[in-house]
Structure formats: structure tokens, C-alpha cells
Amino acid sequence: MNESPLPPPADAADCGPEELVRRIRAGDPAAEEDLVRRYRRGVGAVLRRAGADVATTDDLSQETFAMSLRKIRAGEIREPGRLAGFLCSLARNLAIEHFRKAGSRRTAGIPDTDFASPAPSPLDDLLRTERAAVVRKVLAELPSERDRQVLFRLYLNEEEKDRICRDLRLSSLHFNRVVFRARERYREIYLERVKSREGPR
Amino acid sequence: MAPPDSHWSQMDHTGIDDEQTAERYVLGLLSEEECFRFEEHFLDCPRCLESIEAVEGLRAGLTDVSAADAPAAAASNVAAFRSRTRPTRPFLTFLAAACVPLAILSGLFYAQTRGARHDLDDSRRLLEQSQRRQAELENALQRESAERGRVSVEGLSLRTAPVFLLNLTRGTSLAEPPNHVALPGAAGWVTLVFDRPDGRDASGFRVRVSTSDGQPIGEATAGTASGGLLSVSLPSERLPAGNYVLTVEALGGGQPLATYRFRAEAKR
Questions:
Q1: What is the pLDDT of chain A when averaged over all its residues?
Q2: 3-state secondary structure (DSSP) of residue B150
Q3: How far is CA A124 from CA A4, A138, A188, B159, B227, in A?
Q4: Cβ of B157: how many Cβ atoms within 10 Å?
Q5: What is the ipTM, given to two decimal places?
Q6: Which of A33, A70, A111, B81 is buried deepest, with most CB atoms within 10 A?
Q7: CB contact residues (below 8 A), chain B span 44-63, against chain A
Q8: For residue A132, pLDDT beyond 60
Q9: Which of A166-180, B116-130, B132-146, B192-206 is the most confident on average?
């Protein structure tokens, strides 16, 4: 449900990570594109969880792939089979370093002329409106108010599953079902809207 | 050849779904080891990646819906501020003391009764909060088609909220707070921006605001602004002129990571 139009991640027909590393080391430009195409969404998720906003995620993602390609070409990947783990680790470290540098600038009293405004862009507004419409539809389709409470308490109050089940007198199975269905239904509705926006091909 | 999977096999998504692994990952509830394993897995797993993105969208959408149907809308990179009302401590103390004559002679039984009462009060309060939120949502669903495209005055207020950069404060000095927040004349929002705690590999941060004498005002998950800064927006009506403390903690709890003392005063 990435808001920007990114290509889908690799499917089973793509080569394995060892072959991908081999091709990159052999100088195959298509292999470098495959690397980015295959892992860009996942690296983005790692960076978002590390606290990066949209702009920072884009910047750090580019840096992650640039650095990973340099290291692959230089033969510094000891375990090509664990390419995914290498990329995750690299992305996390770049995020930590990014925030550490930002904090140091603040401490040193260096004026920040790039001060962020909380005002969202028109595109942000549009995406948020669309996202809210999808969520309202998901909530409206839930069979009971109790099920809606599960979602609000889990995602907004960030309460533990055990507490929610105890308070709402839900079984663990029911909780799992509500969370799974809401997530899947959000995904389905969102994809329908994206397809209808793109139109027939 | 498929890459080796250290923990979750490609076919073990039943376990991942049953344990709400994607949800717990996005909410920052996985241990560091679980988090690293899951990341290494989902980078090569389209299904889990889609689950993560769906959870991110659902969570953000619920925040938007909740904020839009509450007093003001939320922006994409700031967190809506949720008030946290608690019964005052003196009242709870009085209530506990009043229960003493009714408790069994054992001192341990008395402590258990008071603890159970606190738990019950917390559960009831959270349930009431959820029910209120649900009632607001039901009303919003009925108004949805009429409201679509209407520009929210409250949303405009949030987008034009004054922004204040807070400097880190240390200790519990009684001196004048170094940070000053000028409250807007009309009811609206103020946005406080501050440093991401330095060198912290936390998945997210929780912000608590209280008066300087410890009365809680509210709490929220910090939003991320550019340049590694964090931000939170507060309704200005919750900040009558006075001294306050903003505390930053890692999601999942623990010791406070940073403290910002500030004084709110009416704009001249």
C-alpha cells in the first residue's frame, strides 16, 4: 500500500540472491536494476520503522542501494545468500547515522534553515483523504462495534492483545480473525481504488 | 534458488498471521531479534511486505479518521494529541482508604483489593473511551457523503498551527523554563518540534505532556518531521498559561529519554 507508484517486489521467477550478486559483480547493469526493483519496497519499510519520514526514506533508500552496489562490486558481501539481511542492516545503520548527525547539528547550535512545516502538501491531503475513505469502508463492513473497538485499541491506543481480549471478552481466535480480515480488506479495497484510478490497460 | 529463511519459512504465514507479526512490527512491539529476523524475511516475501504496507495504511487511516471526527483533523507528519483524563490521586486514595474497613484483616488482601480496583477503573475508562470513539465514528459514517470535499476549518487550523522548536532541558530546575510557547489568540493548535533522542535505535517515540507540578495533560506518539526532528501537535486550549514538561520515551516504555520544559503564555 506504498503511496508512491513503485514496481512490485520480485516474484519466484527472479534469480536467487547469490546469482544476483554474481551478475552485479560481472558488471550486468540489468542486475543492478533488479536489485533495486526487488528490494526497494522492503528497504523503505525498514527505514520507515526506523523513524524516517517520506523524504528521508527516499534519500536513505537511494544511499542504501548506492552503498550496497559499491560493496557488492568490491566483493565485500561475505554471504550472498543473506543479501536481504545485509541490506536491512545497511539501511538501519544509515538511518541511525542520519539521525545522529541531525542531532549533532542541533547540539552544535547550527541554525537549521530547512525547518519543517507541519503543513501537508496537496498530494498528502489527497492521499490521506483516500486512505481515510478506505478505512471508513473497512470499519463499516465490520459486523459489530466490538470489532471496531479492537482496531482502535490495537492501532491507536497500542494496547496489548491480552488486555483487549480481556476487556472486550474476546477469544484469541476472534481477535486474530478481526485483525487479519481488517488488514486484508484494507489491502483489497485500496488495490481496487488504485486499479480504478489507473483505468483499463 | 530461494534465499535461506532464518526463522519464518515461506510457507509458515499462518504463524505470522496468528501472532500479528506484521502489526507488532509496525507498532514497534517485536523484540530487536524478532524485528531483525522479520525484516530479513519480508525483504524477500511479497506477501509479508504487502501485509506491512496494509497495516501502515490502516493505522494511518484510523488516525486520520479518528482525528477528523474528533475536534480537529491530523496532518500527515504530526500526531493527533489525545487527552488523557485520570481520576485525581487524592480521590483514589480516599476511595482506597474508605475500602479498608470492608477488607479482610490481612494487610496483603487490602493491597490486592486496591490493585484490583485500579485495574477495573482503568479497564472501564478505556472501554468508555473506545465506545465514545465508536459513537463518533458511527455519526461520521452517516455524514460521509455530505462531508466529502468540505474543507475542514479545524484541518486548516492544524495546517496553519504555529510551530515552536524546543531546546533540551536538563534536571528539575525551578528556574524559568528556557522554552516559550506563544498560544494563539483563537482556539487552535500549537505544534512542538524537538530533537529525536540522540543515538537511540528506537522504533518510535512516545510523548507525554504534564504541568510542571506533575499533572498529566496528555500523550501521543511523536510524528516525524524532516531533519531528524520529532513533532507533536496539541490543542492550545489544553495549555492555559503556565509551565509544562514534555517528556520523550521510547515506544514500549522505559526511562524518559529527553525532557523539555516550556512556558505557555498568551500571544501578545
A1: 85
A2: coil
A3: 11, 21, 21, 12, 19
A4: 19
A5: 0.85
A6: B81
A7: 44, 46, 49-63
A8: yes
A9: A166-180
